[in-house]
Amino acid sequence: MTTHLRPNHLRLGVNIDHVATIRNARGGLHPCPLRAADVAAAAGADGITIHLREDRRHITDADLIRLSGAISLPINLEMAATDEMLAIALAHKPHAACIVPERRAERTTEGGLDAAGQHNTLQPIVARLQDAGIRVSLFIAPDARQLEAAARLGVPVVELHTGPYAHAETPDEIERELARLTRAAETGVALGLEMHAGHGLTYDNVLPVAALPQLAELNIGHFLIGEAVFVGLDAAIRRMRGLMDEARQDSGA
Ligand code: PXP
Q1: Nearest alpha carbon, ligand 1 atom 9
Q2: Claim: this prediction has a pTM higher than 0.90
Q3: For residue 3, what pLDDT is reported?
């Protein structure tokens, strides 16, 4: 998802992990992540995000293979920084790979990847992915230290963890977390990073994040798949897409 056909366009990556969660609850093939990816494309998604977890709790290796061969949208593979996941990414060459923490020791207190503390572990993995032409991003807390570490690692993209913002309860907390995201988005752009954001975004909290002009992409999953139970996946994605566009228009971004 590198192209900016519309300068103001905020890309939407739809995370379809939880389509696989529902399928896996019964085994079998339904609901099919491939079909979800096709619906997402028709509804205005710009990319498909999947997280192949080490325990394969939702998306499986077979899903990755099927999606890689069949869908029109670019795939953003979320992956732990492990040899196993590196080998899988190199074999399937998704458009993008977002390195996420899966174990406690890989995380910052806010839950993002500890890019600063894990520099030596991450560096060879980032290099191998980039050598294979995969666009690498790091999922990090909105924190200057982590942004600087990401820039030192030479990644072109970071994804800001919006979880603390999404889970904030009081107006003060929400304002504080939004201010952190705003500062981080500005700092990231100043460091030459393309800025993405995601986690916990819903119809109710997406507008202020989507209005941040530095952001190029949001990745949204759980809420959309949950909402699809009530209104269908196509309608859920279209409404999110509409809110993101509205935020951009209103902010003049
Ligand atoms: N971005 C990253 C890096 C993620 O790991 C996830 C899933 O936790 C998301 C975005 C999407 O988050 P959610 O499913 O809460 O929308």
Answers
A1: 199
A2: yes
A3: 46
Q: Which two tokens stand for residue 247?
A: 């935020």
- Please pick, among 78, 106, 159, 194, the residue that the annotation labels catalytic: 78
CA dihedral over 128, 130, 133, 134, signed as positive or negative: positive
Domain 11-251 sits in CATH at 3.20.20.70
The residue assigned the tokens 């949204």 is 220
Report which ligand 1 atom has the smallest distance to the Cα of 198. 10
CA 14 / ligand 1 centre spacing (Å): 9
pLDDT per residue over 96-139, tens digit each? 999 999 988 889 888 999 999 999 999 999 999 999 999 999 99
Ligand 1 site, residue 159, Cβ cutoff 6 A:
yes
Delimit the domains of the chain by residue range.
Answer: 11-251
Please give the distance, rounded to the nearest whole angstrom, from the Cα atom of residue 64 to the centre of ligand 1: 17
138-to-50, 79, 89, 126, 193 alpha-carbon distances in Å: 15, 10, 15, 9, 11
Closest atom of ligand 1 to CA, residue 98 = 3
Q: How far apart are CA 177 and CA 81, in angstroms?
A: 27
